[in-house]
What does this fold into?
Amino acid sequence: MGDVPNFLPSVQGLHYANSWASAPVVEIPTPFGNVNIGDAKHGLCGGMAYAVRDLFEAHDSPPAQATNPASTSPAFHFITTRLIDSFDLPDGVAKYYEWMNLPTGDEFFVHGTSRRTIGVSMPFIRATIDAGHPCPLGLVCVHSANPQDLGENHQVLAYGYADTATTSTLRLYDCNHPDDDGVTITFDNTNPHHSTKFSYSYDDHAVVGFFPSQYTPKDPSPLFQQ
It folds into this structure.
């Protein structure tokens, strides 16, 4: 069991939801062509997850307001910039796409998303949390060969974990559910070679696997300019 000291979504998380009015489209270049991820109405989850870790690393409390920043504000620009950062171009997008096309269980010589999550992702996540840092995660939520479906995936921030002999649970900040300290992913950790069900607290995402995102801190001071 491990938790990041002094971190709870209701205290350290952004108090506004990942719910935005339509804003100008941003296209990012990927190995599969340009992908439209930039209309804010589709969500800015990666930017919000990174912004919350930025605040935590800077020892800053989040802005007190529960209303979303205006699309013309420095805070909005910071979150959208961090959204692009969260995709770790081009490798990060390629990893999402790879996982979207993997089997859940191992097949022949291919390691599935269950094994990669339990055997590779979880040790890194535990180590990050044990070192006192929340860990941004990319949640793979769709099986698809269509690059435009990259937007169906989700990003959260893991801040705690618990393991028993058979079950693992991750505690998460999820910007879709602000101020909720009860968001989790729970799964059986005993048979990663076969398809594993990753049970999410809410039914808005069907998680097939997850991996830690590449994170580099930035100064979060624009978040206070709304």
The helical segments are 9-12, 45-57, 74-86, 91-100, 113-130.
